[in-house]
């Protein structure tokens, strides 16, 4: 049995094989569909909202949040703020331009720890009583109960601690 050849578009001769397709045909005339595997997106932050059961702030909310950053793990604890002289919780009201956008905020204290650097910072923050969103304006971050997913280790988490996309 003799070897058979065919002439390609580039002018070169190629040996004919069984189930062989010319290189130009495979690329241009019969493209293979590439299978894209959907990679799961893992959460890099979370927040837990807990109701205080006993003590001076019984019935109020305390928040524990965490966030994975390039600089290490960032942990935040947000607790109710009693004010100077421990005179009780402070509620702040704000009114919109038209007057029908009244919002109530609770003053809270936020302690942020960076575990890799070993630093701790304290900020005064406000929590919207209706949406439970906490905004840390100095850092451009927010903590919200919205958002759910799975971490890389497989643990289910809720909440979000990250960039505040509404800040300007």
Question: What is the secondary structure topology, with strand pairs?
Answer:
Elements: E1 5-7, E2 13-15, H1 23-28, E3 45-51, E4 61-69, E5 72-80, E6 91-94, E7 103-114, E8 119-128, E9 134-136, E10 141-150, E11 156-163
Description:
The chain is built from one helix and eleven strands. A hairpin with an 8-residue loop joins β6 (91-94) and β7 (103-114). 4% of the residues lie in helices and 46% in strands. The mean pLDDT is 82. It has 168 residues and is mainly beta. Strands 3, 4, 5, 6, 7, 8, 9, 10 and 11 form a nine-stranded antiparallel sheet that branches. A two-stranded antiparallel ribbon has the order 1-2.
- Number of discrete helical segments: 1
Question: What is the radius of gyration?
Answer: 30 Å
Q: Tally of extended strands?
A: 11
> What spatial form do the alpha-carbon principal axes imply?
elongated
Nutshell version of this structure?
With 168 residues, this protein is mostly beta strands. The protein has one helix and eleven strands.
